[in-house]
Amino acid sequence: MTWGICMIVTIGSQILVSRLGLGRNPKIWDEPNMFKTERHLDGHVKNSLGLTLLEPDMRFVTFGTGHRSCPTTKIGTSMTIMSLARLLQGFEWTLPNGKIQLELISAESNLFIAKPLLGSANQFWLQVYIRKFRSRIFRKCLGDKSSSDIILLSTIYVF
Fold first, then answer.
1. 6 known member of a binding site
2. pLDDT tens series, the chain, 159 aa
3. Judging by beta carbons within 10 Å of its beta carbon (0-12, 13-18, 19+), is residue 55 exposed, middle or buried?
4. Pick from 8, 60, 112, 126: most CB atoms within 10 A?
C-alpha cells in the first residue's frame, strides 16, 4: 500500500502515532465519525464469523493485539475488578426507592440486562489500625526519657 507521500525522518526523531487520528482519518474512512461495524467485517484474516480485529494496513490500531500490545491490560482488568469488589464489600447495599427485588431481565439484542442495576450505598464502618512502636528519635526530640510508646496513626484501612 503506497500513500504517495514520502517523508525523510532523521535519526533520533520521536514519532507519535495518534490512535484517534488513525481511526477518524477522512482520507481513509468514509464517514469517520460514525460507528460502523461493517468496517471490521471486511477484514483480510477471516474466521468463521468473517470478523477480524487485526488490520494489516494500519488504518486503525487495536489496544490489545500483537506483540506491541499494552503489557498492563491484564493487571488493569484485575485492578478494576478488585476495585469493584472492594466497593461491594465495603458498603451495605440496599435497593433504592423501596424496591423489593432486582429485575434481571436481559435485553433482546445483546447479553446485557435491560435495565441497569441501581443500588444505594448505606453507612459503612471505618476501621482504623494504629501502629504502636518505640521511637528513640521522637523521644529524643521531645525530650522524653521514659520508655512510653509513641502512637502514630500511620495507615487507615477501609474494611
1. no
2. 445 677 787 888 877 766 667 667 787 777 877 777 676 665 544 444 555 555 556 556 555 555 666 777 778 888 888 888 887 777 777 777 777 776 777 767 666 666 767 777 765 544 333 334 444 444 444 444 443 333 333 333 343
3. middle
4. 60
Q: What is the DSSP string of the chain?
A: ---S------TT------HHHHHT-TTTSSSTTS--THHHHT-SS--TTS-----TT-SS--SS-STTS-TTHHHHHHHHHHHHHHHHHHS-EE-GGG--S---PBPSSSSSBSS----EE---PEEEEEEEE--HHHHHHHT--S-PPEEEEEEEEE-
Cα–Cα distance measured from residue 16 to residue 9, given in angstroms and rounded to the nearest whole number: 12
Burial of 63 per CB tally in 10 Å (0-12, 13-18, 19+): exposed
Q: C-alpha cell of 151?
A: 502512637
Sign of the dihedral defined by the CA atoms of residues 9, 12, 16, 17, in that order: positive
